[in-house]
Amino acid sequence: LVKVSLKSGVLKEKLARRNMSQNCFALKLKVSNGYMSQLFSGTRNPSPKLRGKILSALELVETDFDEVFKIRN
User: Fold this and answer.
1) What is the pLDDT of residue 4?
2) How many angstroms separate the CA atoms of 50 and 11, rounded?
């Protein structure tokens, strides 16, 4: 089973460059602050749908996937 998680340090930097907080980003993605916190801490993994929303919200394309996410077996 392949698991995909956030590269939280990279994502935090991208949010900082956009003057956006983790809570503001959660609102934009329509997920709870608690769930977003779990994603950042690595205790939860984003679904394929949410991964697409994250890339869209950051105005990234699929080729930027490896910049924001890491894949584990």
Assistant:
1) 96
2) 14
Q: Is the pLDDT of residue 60 over 90?
A: no
pTM equals 0.90
- Kind of pairing, strands 69-72 and 3-6? antiparallel
For residue 25 the two structure tokens come to: 């980003």
Residue whose pair of structure tokens reads 């993605």 in the numeric block:
29
pLDDT over 90 at 22, yes or no: yes
Q: What are phi and psi of 47, to 5 degrees?
A: -70, 165
Q: What is the CA radius of gyration of the chain?
A: 11
Lookup: tokens for 64: 């930027």
Estimate the share of the chain in helix, then strand, then coil, as percent rounded to the nearest 5.
60, 10, 30
Task: Enumerate helices (H) and strands (E) in the chain, giving the number of each.
Answer: 5, 2
